[in-house]
Amino acid sequence: MSSFEPSFYRMKLNILNEEAENTTFSKSDYSEYWEHLRTQWNDAAGRGVNTREMTPLISTYDELLEQNVKVTQVKERCAEHFEQLQKLLNQAAHHHEQFTDMMSLLSNQSQERDRTLRTSENMAKQVEEQQKSVAAKKQAANSHVKPI
Fold this sequence. Notes:
Elements: H1 6-41, H2 44-144
Helix pairs in contact: 1-2
């Protein structure tokens, strides 16, 4: 799996963590700025704007941050699972290599056994031929000698 790079996912997680931190800072900075404006205005219109617009915005920021944390956690789990998958794939490749080596060794042993069997069959044929030749020579020698 040449295109698999866990470092890419770790980098993405770092970027997302930085974004979450920046969003938190941005939210707190925005809240402080609004509180400062609200205290300066000190009138009913300013409090009304705060109630109507800023409170829902701040709650939306809270929800956004919660979702961002959940997404970051899911991405971290995905990166861990991908890393584990890479380890398992490496182990599988190692086992496949061992299997290939064993099959090669078995093939070599099988070929050696076949050669040995052919050699022993040839030798058995030669022995048979020699025994026939010796038997024929004995018979030929016995035919010249007359029984007593």
